[in-house]
Amino acid sequence: MSLFKLTLRNLLHRRFLSLLTVCAVAVTVAFIVLLSLSRQSVEQGAKKGYGPFDLVIGAAGSETQLVLNTFYHIGAPTGNIPLAVLDQVEQDQDVDKAFAMTTGDNYKGFPIVGMDSGYFVTRYGDRNLQDGNLYAHTGETIIGSYVAESLGLHIGDTFTGAHGLVQGDSHETAEAEHTEEHEEEHEEDHAAEAAGDSPDEAHDEEHGEEHAHESFQYTVVGILPALNTPDDRAVFTTVDYAWAVHGLPPEEREITAVLVKPASLLGAHDLKEVLDGSNGVQAAYTSQAVSDVLNAVDQGAQLLSVLTALCVILAAIAILLSLIAAVGERTKDVGLLRLLGKSRAYVWLTLTSEGLLVTATGLIAGLLLGHLGAFLLKDALFAQAGIQIEPYQWTPDHWLIAAGALSIGLLSSLGPAFRMYRMHPLALFKS
Question: Compositional bias (Basic and acidic residues) at which positions (predicted)?
């Protein structure tokens, strides 16, 4: 009987314990693979999320919040800034390209972003749309590929937006908002009375804003190709959409942010020095804010690394206990093999190959489970953070994971194998 057949027969003889050991290894490997793919996707997605725009200008507040809202469409903007800031930036000789952005509305949870159409050429080059054309008039929109796929929108479809940046459109959210509406009505009435307005006037103003959004209609004129960036889950339209929705006169028009592609790093530094902290305006280095986010992610990953280490230890213990049980059951069989002329090396190989076979089986199952988990989580991760995880990607970490798993299996096998190796054949048989 060959060594492989003997090892396989021994494992099937203890199929329940062998299955538990394989499961322990598989779960550990799957967790490590999923963590590796997620971390790499977050790093890659964060770095390419802002493109060539090394500087962003917005209302004073958190730089991280400004960058996340502007480029990743996460969270709320820090506020609005005067439209005159855009003119000041465009006149700067150290600025290559600058685009104003307005935001604050959504359609079924996807942000509506006002942006000059030149942004797409600067950001993605001369790429063709998946369908349709770029917008040219107020109310026309182009939508990200993920939005089109999720909502089933096509060229020529129309819709109305809603105020605010919400993360979902579930029935539970609507019910919660409806309940909060009733609870806050009395507080709003008191606030209106304190300000000298009647409650009816405050309600009329709120209802008038809702009516303004409902009466302004958007038309889909284009669909972006799959960009694998947060722009896939946004609705883009002209910068003046917010002014048109609210009917703002020229003197009251504001923008949310200005995306700046500087002609040089020195130019970006000079522009930041001029604008940062003046009249409620801040200028932030995009890469620095993204690095702060990645550092926070790395700190969380370190905590997960501790959990991963515990899983690895438990998997090693499971392999060790499985082989110790095998030694206890097969002492007489091993003694008989030795008396029949099998060498100590053969006995050594039977036990070490058993540990390696269990580990290899768990490794393969874990790799499949890890990639399956990445496939199941990719839509949720992209919907929440605009990070595109690649479930079919094979990274250098995979080789390290495979080598580490097999090494642990081998090390766990050495103790029981060495114990059998040292014993005399007659002692093995008599025991």
Answer: 171-181, 200-212
